């Protein structure tokens, strides 16, 4: 059991599958209280029951569509009322549709911005006063290596993750002397249902199959880093090295990696 996490209330968005469900499981395993949010009521109920059976820990859950800002604002208020204080926030919810900009549907663009950016801003903005008042807290934003290297067919998705990284870095500097930790988690491809919506053809998922991350391991690393001052978690580490090279020589890397970049 992790003493840093024990007894702490951790709000997790996008908790009904993939990384989110494993985050809830590892929080409970380490003695914390996961507060799960997602659209799928059925999945949340199942995960909460499994956590209770496995660890004897209550796992709270709230059904919410994070793309609906007004409703999500009200649900955050309800969460704060129900629990009094929150110790950490993991902004995990995210979605993508990989398309050329010229072929993209506006509803898909709008939803990516709403879920990946606006809801993350909303949740953080609403909970930040609680963290500041209690003089402690940890905000973890699940970003992406796509926020560091944009590729064809992911213009909007990459833009949303660029926004998350910019927001995270600025927020970290604003609150670092107030007892609040802020961490970005920059991931490569993860073996989840994410790609079923992002690329229904399955072509991109097949092309990166050998390098896909295990969502359980990703979640464990994130939970192990809770309440530790850490600027970034980059997985896999070699992909982050590529991001650093890209920042120095973007034109060269785009030329060299053109074939890989165009596999979406």
Protein described:
There is one protein chain. The chain has 264 residues and is of the alpha/beta class. The protein has a single domain, classed as Rossmann fold. Helix content is 51%, strand content 14%. The chain is built from 11 helices and 7 strands. It has a 7-stranded parallel β-sheet, with helices on both faces. Helix 1 links the parallel strand 1 and strand 2. Helix 1 packs parallel to helix 2, helix 1 crosses helix 8 and helix 4 runs parallel beside helix 5. The chain is globular, with a radius of gyration of 18 Å. The termini are far apart. Keywords: Oxidoreductase. One of its GO terms (molecular function) is oxidoreductase activity. InterPro entries: NAD(P)-bd_dom_sf, Sc_DH/Rdtase_CS, SDR_fam.
């Amino acid at each position: 059991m992790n003493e840093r996490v024990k007894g702490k209330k951790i709000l997790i968005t996008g908790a009904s599958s993939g990384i989110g469900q494993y985050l809830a499981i590892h929080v409970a395993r380490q003695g914390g209280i996961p507060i799960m949010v997602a659209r799928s009521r059925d999945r949340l109920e199942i995960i909460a029951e499994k956590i209770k059976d496995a660890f004897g820990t209550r796992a709270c859950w709230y059904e919410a569509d994070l793309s609906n800002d007004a409703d999500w604002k009200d649900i955050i208020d309800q969460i704060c009322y129900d629990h009094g204080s929150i110790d950490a926030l993991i902004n995990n919810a995210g979605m993508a549709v990989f398309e050329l900009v010229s072929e993209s549907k506006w509803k898909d663009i709008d939803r990516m911005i709403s879920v990946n950016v606006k809801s993350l801003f909303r949740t953080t903005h609403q909970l930040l006063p609680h963290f500041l008042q209690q003089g402690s807290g940890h905000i973890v934003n699940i970003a992406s290596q796509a926020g560091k290297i944009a590729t064809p067919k992911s213009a909007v998705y990459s833009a949303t993750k660029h926004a998350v990284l910019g927001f995270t870095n600025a927020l970290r500097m604003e609150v670092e002397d107030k007892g609040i930790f802020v961490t970005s988690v920059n991931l490569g491809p993860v073996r989840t249902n994410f790609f079923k919506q992002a690329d229904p053809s399955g072509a991109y998922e097949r092309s990166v199959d050998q390098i896909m991350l295990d969502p359980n391991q990703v979640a464990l690393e994130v939970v192990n880093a809770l309440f530790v001052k850490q600027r970034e978690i980059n997985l896999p580490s070699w992909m982050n090295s590529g991001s650093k090279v890209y920042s120095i020589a973007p034109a060269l890397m785009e030329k060299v990696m053109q074939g890989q970049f165009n596999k979406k």
